Amino acid sequence: MRASLIQLSVDASDSAEERRLRASSLVRGRTGDDLVVLPELWTAGAWAYDGWGHDAEGIDGPTAEAMSAAARAAGVWLHAGSIVERDADGTLYNTALLFDRAGDLRGNYRKIHRYGFDTGEATMMGGGGDIVTVPTEFGVIGLAICYDLRFPELFRGLIDEGAELIIVPAAWPAARLAHWQLLTRTRALEEQVFLLACCATGTHGGMRQGGHSVAVDPWGTVLGEAGTAAETVTVGVDMGEVARIRSELPVLRDRVLAVGSAAGR
Length: 265
Known about the structure:
This protein has about 260 residues and is an alpha/beta fold. The chain has seven helices and 14 strands. Strand 3 and strand 4 (about 90-100) form a beta hairpin.
């Protein structure tokens, strides 16, 4: 399988429509790939809180429409990063969208762990409650977003639902780049999955994003990593490695779920 991470530059000078046009063009150019991934909240800007209300849309809105058409034109599975979704009741969510080669929406995930503590996402958005996996012809894909990387229990939940490859769109701050690089490798290694983590670059809302989109294999080896500029990283992914590594080093089999409880004594 061939996978590409399109590390978009998301700057304050761009409008959502300009970003959609640029992303559509880049996705359409990925003919020959099997899977393409975009960053978190690249249309609205993950740190541009003031514009979220204006740029919020439904999962059948303009971004979904443009990304569906781009996936269909390129003949790829497309993880379109995430959008500011406005639900029918008015609640905003940080929602990831996954389209198949025909452009059909096959999965959507509302971010469970909202970043910001007492500001931004934590106060302005609702939190998701569902673990989401999607079967594909090359394996089961699990969905997570950015700050979710800091919560290993979500990733254990994803592999319990069969995930063999986990996709993480992000707008991770450059100031904590070392954390990003450590956590992406750790989540892949501990869950024995391929992890494709696509981060935005550029500056908006006063925050410089870290870039360094990365593909990691189930052994924790980095297959490809971007720098800090807008670029596309393409890697080969042998999904057979998941079963081989889990068999060679069967650590998941040795999990003890009830440590410290009466059931585990």
